[in-house]
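Quick check before the chapter quiz. The format below is the same one you will see on the exam, so make sure you can read both the input and the output lines.
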Amino acid sequence: MRIATFNVNGINTRLPNLLQWLEAERPDVVCLQELKADQHAFPLAALEAAGYGAVWQGQRSWNGVAILARGATPVLTRRRLPGDPDDAQARYIEAAVDGVLVASLYLPNGNPRPGPKFDDKLAWFERLIAHAAELMAAGVPVVLAGDYNVVPTEADIYPGHREKENALLAGQSRSAFARLVDQGWTDALRQRHPEGRLWTFWAYLHQRWPNDKGMRLDHLLLSPNLAFRLTEADVSRDVRGKAGASDHAPAWLVLGPETRRRGARKPKASA
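Here is the expected output.
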């Protein structure tokens, strides 16, 4: 089972790039972020023609998340991250696909900091940590995939950077990510590649892509009852170099065949 996460940075603008990648790689499940499209503007027909069913939560101009499944329609379980009934931003969606609960998330950027945007980022992070703890306690197989807008360590950004004031690298952001992982989640990319460059994002400005000055912002976290099935994980860097590309590249993992463990529970829909 191949599961990918991809911040498309405008699904309709980048639709040709997305369709080309889907045809070439044929992932089984895809988590998309930053759709930048209203709910009614999601290109479902084009994706279905490519062989993918979808659930999504759109939003005009920014945000927006989706989950695609090859040859099937994901079973929607949640459209919002719990913990704030007034949250109207489309940053989280959750669905079951082939016995796995998959979340596509787009954590707030948080810049500039200090300020209200950084406070919102940390508050959203706390809600994610709380919900992730509930998922972990439920014992269902889960993948938390998406653009976390966090560079976890200095090994996850190009050497010699001048980003110390960036909210993506702030100590509070990194601490929140570490607390999330410490619940028992496996960082799939670093599990398979403990060292070396694993950039998933290269800004459009300052020749960041040609000079390979990137960051790792996109992560796939696995619950313990999935982590033992992890066989591969990597970043499709070449996608970033295509004409009209997103500033992110897809990150992906492969789960080997299931060996059911005693006490494992299947995901069920949430209210």
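If your answer matched, good. The chain has one domain: 2-255.
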